[in-house]
Design a protein that fits this description.
74% of the residues lie in helices and 0% in strands. With 223 residues, the protein is mostly helical. The chain has a single domain, classed as Four Helix Bundle (Hemerythrin (Met), subunit A) (Up-down Bundle), CATH 1.20.120.1760. The model has no long low-confidence stretch (mean pLDDT 94).
């Protein structure tokens, strides 16, 4: 299997702005692995901001949530561009598949656990457990996908809550949490968001596992 066999189908990859930005990065000599590493840096900053929300008040707290949402989206932008620079512009490295996977797992854990600990710092102790649960399930979705590839099957990016959808929910959670004090909440939006992510990701793990089992049985029956 080649690196392109494990590319998530994304409509944004064909957007003119994405192609132009990837071309400029490639022309500037940017390395896909460095872009992947930058995604982790954005995730770490986003996690720190989410954690600090538990100790901040007023406008500072709202700003931290908004900036965290920006960091989530910048992480996704890096995830888009590293593959485009590597594949469309032929700048992939021999160990590119490692950089394609491990930074993603680290970024998921940082952001989800950071959100959970931020909610806990706001006085909602369940945040820690929900953050870790969502993070473990996020890593498990990738494990099931890679398990299938290791068994010689195509990568399965099925949802309902694959990475782009998880990060969309987290982004929306941050933006709503920025204004939740208007109705007297402090951290409850993050708990709800993490709960939605955990539930949707659990369903994703179950669906991918069921699809993997069906493909293996079909292959065995056809062999």
């Amino acid at each position: 299997m080649t690196e392109t066999d494990n590319r998530r189908p994304l409509k944004s990859r064909s957007a003119p702005w994405a192609g132009a930005l990837a071309a400029r990065l490639a022309a500037a000599g940017a390395q896909p692995d460095a872009i992947s590493a930058l995604s982790v840096a954005f995730a770490a900053l986003g996690a720190a901001l989410l954690l600090w929300t538990g100790a901040l008040e007023g406008g500072w707290r709202a700003a931290a949530f908004v900036l965290a949402a920006v960091c989530v989206q910048l992480r996704l932008l890096c995830n888009l561009l590293d593959g485009m620079v590597a594949v469309e512009h032929g700048r992939g490295s021999p160990d590119g598949p490692i950089w394609n996977e491990l930074p993603d797992r680290a970024a998921d854990v940082l952001l989800l656990v950071g959100a959970g600990y931020g909610a806990a710092a706001s006085g909602l102790d369940a945040g820690r457990a929900l953050g870790w649960l969502a993070a473990v399930l996020a890593v498990t979705t990738a494990y099931v996908r890679e398990l299938g590839r290791g068994l010689g099957l195509p990568a399965d990016f099925a949802g309902p809550l694959a990475k782009p959808q998880r990060m969309a929910v987290l982004t929306a959670t941050c933006l709503v949490a920025a204004v939740e004090p208007l109705w007297g909440w402090r951290g409850e939006c993050v708990l709800i968001g993490l709960g939605m992510i955990a539930l949707g990701t659990a369903l994703t793990v179950a669906r991918r596992t069921r699809r993997l089992s069906a493909r293996l049985r079909e292959r065995a029956a056809g062999g």
